[in-house]
UniProtKB/TrEMBL annotation, chain A:
Location of region: Disordered: 86-119
Taxonomy, superkingdom: Bacteria
Cross-referenced InterPro entries: UCP010256, Uncharacterised_CoxE
Protein name (record): VWA domain-containing protein
Signal peptide bounds: none
Provenance organism: Nocardioides kribbensis
Pfam short name (any one): VWA_CoxE
Composition bias type Acidic residues, residue spans: 98-108
Length: 485, 293
């Protein structure tokens, strides 16, 4: 380990671990030592091996793997600078020969990056040439070549020269705008179809390759910035939280899909945890007959006692959710989770509102398809709005008028929303009346606690009537549901 | 102690392949590390991607015996570790009393009935006491109660079991431990910290084709390619249960049995039940893949 100490490897290793911890991975000292032991057992000359060694010892959850990969790329970059020579030992020019017009490109590939540093190679001709080569590489689906092209692309077209050393930067956005790989889709599809693939298949393959290339470019920009400013800087600025810690209110479209895939596993985990816990508490009154019968095998001595199972208590749940633009996603995910867990309840009814109330229970048929349900829910949001501006007071009044039978002494009420009512009358009296005769009530607020009561938020005023809980991400949602059941 | 498992990740790939398990680079590397560092290996992933099969393949590749502990809800010490054969102990006491009235002292009887003869070893203890190479598979560890995890801690970190009457039994030769989990419950940090972690996922198209061809020799290349492409498309859909490798292999066997050569829309629709096990998944697949229902 002394060699590592002098070469700065140990420092890099520790900085990497610190970054992982900062990103929310619980890396203990024991795992740290395991990682060192694993790396000693592996050979250092293969980057993929080092990565797997680290991953096996440090990453113990599936959801953390993307974070780990991004940080690993930052702290142990594939190449340094414009990298004529990759760390994995493949010289930059060698693969160009495998492409059909490799002879033409081979010679200028190595000197291109050097020139790019001075910023003179970024001109229209270079752009056209680069796009042609990119098209070839995308058509061939050659990952190594694409990784090199991504590095070249960021270096050439994404450079933002600074006034001095340490001030220059790189932008994946600029590079992607200039090269616009998205415009190549049609050509790739045409090329793939000519290569004997079906239309649909070609479409999918093209979209996949462009997407992968875009991610590579983004990673390369991070790597370069990390080199310039130190990985710690990038790790703290450019890393996104893992999907289960991502705020409902700051989701992008791609996140929506990923999160939807998480709903069912989460529901299954919660359900199995609940069954286990119920079983642990199920020792009811003594079952005399079974105990005596079992004692026969031990000569009449009742060594083990048997108990009757305890009847599980199940609640009727009424969910009332705000589906106005800002919080719609939160409401949808919570509804999906609640209905995925429906067998844990006696009955579930769901209502959506903006300034009017609409019952959505029928959309959740048992075994229905998630994507369809989400579509129906979005379409039905129109029924829940009369003037289109969120009005909690009006919605509550309408709910009390239209569905007086929904809440009974055995039911529990769950309200979902940010409690922002556009300064309208809150009708606290109606809410108080609604919650008076029922078993439980909760209010889930997707906003951070520090934003409560800012602007038109009436969080604490509603919170006095119905206990309000902060619920910003899937983890918090899962914890809440578990606690309630 | 000799770590006779694998000598390098590359060799792990080779020997696992010889045992009929096509491992990808992460799997091979992690298996090699589990052998080299003598740490348990926790394998997580969706059902049917070959978690249990990995343990069996390691056992075959290294000529080791497989000891399997199938976990289930309510599993306890007596089923996992060891148990005293109290019926036999009772008989022993009664026999000694019947033979010579009060001849034998209680302390002698006591020493007599807490010996190896009356000990029923269960998988964990068996694996630790074995002197030959052993692969210990703790299957579906997420199904157990939290208390069993506590029980595993001593076994997993020190490879020893403490029996109050006999003392501590330490492993002569550390077994290769594989824990498999479907992640239906989050395992405790204490267990995870002691293990190496491997997440097995659906393989890429090429590897899956190799797996299917090696498992179902009768399938020709074109059929395998079509099948794997179709399964790949199904995994991209949002299904309740995406088809895993086990389902691909089943499907391939079905096609052979029905003598279907060409996997066209009709053939897919007819045999969809082999791959997709939910009614809503069926509907979605038929709609999205534009099959004729």
């Amino acid at each position: 380990m002394t060699a590592a100490g002098t070469s700065g490897l140990l420092e890099r290793h520790i900085a990497f671990l610190e970054a992982l911890r900062a990103a929310g991975l619980p890396v203990s000292l024991a795992e740290d030592l395991d990682a060192i032991a694993a790396l000693t057992a592996l050979s250092w000359d293969d980057r993929a091996l080092v990565r797997e060694g680290y991953a096996a010892t440090l990453v113990k959850r599936r959801a953390q793997r993307p974070t780990f990969d991004a940080l690993f790329d930052l702290y142990f970059p594939r190449l340094v600078g414009d990298g004529g020579l990759g760390l994995d030992g493949t010289p930059g020019g060698s693969d160009a020969e495998t492409s059909p017009d490799g002879d033409a490109d081979g010679p200028d590939a190595p000197d291109g990056p050097d020139a790019a540093g001075e910023g003179v190679r970024d001109n229209a001709a270079a752009l056209t040439d680069f796009r042609e080569r990119l098209l070839d590489a995308l058509l061939a689906g050659d990952d190594d070549a694409l990784a090199r092209m991504a590095a070249e692309m960021v270096g050439r077209f994404g450079a933002m020269p600074g006034r001095g050393p340490g001030l220059s930067s790189w932008s994946a956005y600029t590079a992607l705008q200039r090269v616009a790989p998205g415009e190549l889709v049609d050509k790739i599809v045409a090329g793939l179809v000519a290569g004997g693939r079906g239309d649909e298949e070609a479409d999918r393959a093209a979209a996949q390759r462009i997407g992968a290339f875009t991610r590579t470019v983004e990673a390369d920009a991070r790597r370069r910035i990390g080199e310039e400013k130190g990985p710690d800087h990038v790790a703290s600025v450019a890393m996104r939280p893992t999907i289960d810690r991502l705020d409902f209110l700051s989701m992008r479209r791609a996140d929506l899909e990923e999160m939807r895939r998480e709903i069912h596993p989460l529901a299954r985990r919660l359900a199995s945890r609940l069954t286990q816990e119920h079983h642990a508490r199920r020792r009811g009154p003594l079952d005399f007959r079974r105990t005596v019968r079992a004692s026969m095998s031990t000569g009449g001595v009742p060594l083990t006692t048997h108990h009757k199972p305890r009847r599980p208590h199940r609640t009727e749940l009424v969910v009332l959710c705000d589906v106005s633009g800002s919080v719609a996603h939160f409401a949808q995910f919570t509804l999906l989770l609640v209905f995925a867990l429906r067998d844990q309840f006696q009955a579930v009814r769901a209502f959506t509102f903006v300034d009017d109330v609409h019952e959505v229970t029928p959309y959740f048929r048992p075994g229905a398809d998630l994507v369809d349900v989400m579509g129906d829910l979005a379409a039905s949001a129109a029924h829940a709005a009369r003037f289109g501006r969120t009005n909690y007071g009006r919605a509550l009044t309408r709910f009390a008028e239209e569905h007086p039978d929904a809440l009974g002494p055995r039911s529990s009420l769950l309200v979902l929303g940010d409690a922002r009512s556009n300064y309208a009358d809150l009708r606290l009296d109606v809410l108080r009346e609604l919650t008076a005769g029922i078993r439980h009530s909760w209010w889930l607020n997707p906003e951070h606690r520090r934003h409560w009561d800012t602007g038109d938020s009436a969080a604490s005023r509603y919170g006095e009537v119905v206990p309000m809980v902060e619920c910003r991400n899937l983890t918090q949602l899962g914890e809440f549901v578990h606690q309630v059941l | 102690m000799t770590s006779s498992w694998f000598s390098s990740p590359a060799q792990a790939v080779e020997r696992l392949a010889a045992a009929g398990y096509l491992a990808d680079a992460p799997t091979a590397t992690t298996s090699y590390l589990a052998g080299a560092l003598e740490k348990p290996l926790l394998v997580e992933g969706p059902a049917g991607v070959g978690k249990t099969e990995l343990a069996k393949a390691v056992a075959r590749a290294c000529d080791a015996e497989l000891v399997r502990l199938q976990c289930y809800e309510g599993l306890d010490e007596a089923r996992a570790l060891y148990e005293w054969n109290y019926k036999k102990q009772l008989l022993r006491i009664q026999a000694s009393q019947g033979a010579q009235e009060g001849a034998q002292e209680w302390s002698a009887t006591h020493d007599d009935i807490f010996t190896d003869e009356f000990l029923l070893t269960r998988p964990l203890l068996t694996a630790i006491r074995r002197e030959e190479p052993t692969v210990l598979l703790i299957d579906e560890v997420d199904k157990t109660d939290v208390e069993v995890e506590g029980l595993l801690l001593e076994v997993l970190s020190d490879f020893q079991v403490t029996i109050p009457e006999l003392g501590t039994v330490t492993a002569v030769r550390r077994p290769f431990v594989v824990l498999s989990s479907n992640a239906s419950r989050e395992l405790s940090e204490a267990v995870k910290r002691r293990c190496l972690y491997l997440h097995l996922d659906y393989p890429d198209a090429e590897r899956e084709r190799e797996i299917v061809s090696s498992q179902v020799p009768g399938l020709d290349d074109r059929g395998a390619e079509q099948l794997v492409a179709m399964v790949g498309r199904m995994r991209e859909l949002e299904l309740k249960k995406a088809p895993s490798i086990a389902e691909s292999v089943d499907w391939a066997r079905t096609l052979i049995a029905l003598e279907i050569r060409d996997l066209d829309d009709k053939a897919v629709t007819d045999t969809l039940g082999v791959v997709l096990k939910h009614a809503s998944d069926h509907d979605r697949a038929v709609r999205e893949l534009r099959l004729r229902a």
